[in-house]
Amino acid sequence: MTAARALPRHADGPDGRRLPGLLQAMDLDAHLGAYGPPPYRGPRQLIEVVAAAGLTGRGGAGFPTARKLAVVAGAGRRAVVVGNGAESEPASRKDKQLLLTAPHLVLDGLQLAAEAVGATMACLYLHRHPGLHRALGSALAARAAAGLDRVEVQLVSAPPRFLAGEESAVVSRINSGPALPRFKVPPMFQRGVAGAPTLVQNVETLAHLARIARYGASWFRAAGTAAEPGSMLATCRRADGTVEVVETAIGTPLGELLRLSELPGQAVLVGGYHGTWLTSAHAAALPLANAGLRPAGAAVGAGLLVALPPGRCGIAEAVRVVRYLAAESAGQCGPCLSGLPRIATGFAELAAPRPRPRLRADLERWARMAERRGACHHPDGSVRFLRSALAVFAGELTAHARGQCPATSHRPFLPVPAGVPAGQADWT
Amino acid sequence: MNQQLRVNPIACTGHGLCAELLPEWASLDEWGYPIISAEPIPPRLRKAARRAVTDCPALALLLTDGR
């Protein structure tokens, strides 16, 4: 794969000039030279353009951005806009990289979204990472000196928890509470930060919004597919252990992004730890687009792709991840609190020699009981990950039951943070 | 009006009263938490559903307008 082929087709601006990519490093001077100041155009004006562009959220759920903007703008009260930069997938790093290389695109998007929905307050929600806070703090100071921002932006830090970036957890944390998911009745767009209608958008979504505001809907649609237009950032963890964040057109084959022909893997994880395992042969030809992934039971999520190299044990990897997901349950909803630890323990037992005969049926029943019964999607995503691992690594499971493992290396491949003992979790 | 019975899973502490008051609509899983039908509550059960909502010790049940 050459760098040129990876460029989204909208790499050229409407005037034919080559545009910098989303990930091109730019300080404020470079940013103003390339893009100019944020193109403010008055309340609500941007919503139609974003709707025509077909931009969807890049944080994982893929909800149409214009619909969120319209519903918050339509609430008729002073709103709050939140840029969500707390990507919590341990294996993903696209938001962090975007924030460190092109902070001003994100901050332009935050201002333009605030204008569109009539927000008088804006927050940028980031992990505690000191470099990130320093970089965004000085970017905001430079913008203040240049008089670019109309709404003041507050930096809020997120605890290092898997669920800290969940929309209602973000709002709870900004309201000085713990970063725990909430029961979303009424929804955030009606009552969020300080009781105001609240728009929470992933930072990459805001960066796209900042470019759509300048170059328009048809420019954005020159890349991607008709149903899922534009480009997106993807974190590609390839079979040789290297990690690269790329901006790619939606619809690019997974095999190309992971370079599977040069760096073959045995299985591919699509969408993160709430995502789906596929065999490498199946994944190679599938596009990075929900329309193509849906029949395979997968979704682009927040654009995380992992190729598991040959010689590693997919079951051992999946067991570690499921144990981590169980430990990261907020422990608030009964079916998740009771279900995920049983699922994690049962899965580990199933991966050990001679598991008890009823275990597989128990595991499947616990998965059904945990699913769709939480205040957030943590149990659903964890169960999706588990089921796809059981299907893709069925051969390994059979070998494990006989006391064998085909793997040649048991060095962990997927990054899994060290667990926090129950009761000592810090959610602020 | 199409009303749905919903549980706030964060507030629910698994007392199980809903399954006694409204066995047609709520059953308990093997951990003691309610599994509640998402179907609209039929008129004959509306009174019992309202009672389950007011009597839930955790105030975890609510009736919402179905969408």
Textual characterization of the structure:
The complex is a heterodimer of chains A (428) and B (67). With 428 residues, chain A is α/β, with parallel strands linked by helices. Chain A is built from 18 helices and nine strands. In chain A, the strands form two sheets. Chain A has a five-stranded mixed beta sheet. Chain A has a four-stranded parallel beta sheet with strand order 3-2-1-4, with helices on both faces. In chain A, strand 7 and strand 8 form a beta hairpin. In chain A, helix 14 runs antiparallel to helix 15 and helix 16 packs antiparallel against helix 17. Chain A is globular, with a radius of gyration of 22 Å. Chain A starts with a helix and ends in a 27-residue tail after the last helix. The N terminus of chain A is likely disordered. By secondary structure, chain B is an alpha+beta fold. Chain B has one domain: Alpha-Beta Plaits (2-Layer Sandwich), CATH 3.30.70. Chain B contains two helices and four strands. Chain B has a two-stranded antiparallel sheet. The relative contact order of chain B is 0.36. Chains A and B meet through helix 15 of A and loops of B.
What is the number of helical segments of chain B per DSSP (H or I, 4+ residues)?
2
Helical run tally of chain A: 18
- The total beta strand count of chain B reads 4
CATH architecture of the largest domain in chain A: 3-Layer(aba) Sandwich
The fraction of residues assigned to DSSP E strands of chain B is 15-25%
What Rg of chain A, in angstroms, do the CA atoms define? 22 Å
Please tell me the CATH architecture of chain B by its name.
2-Layer Sandwich
> End-to-end distance of chain B, in Å?
11 Å
How many structural domains are formed by the residues of chain B? 1
Biggest sheet features of chain B: 2 strands, antiparallel
β-strand amount of chain A: 5-15%
Structural class of chain B: alpha+beta
Largest sheet of chain A: 5 strands, mixed
Shape, principal axes of CA atoms of chain B: globular
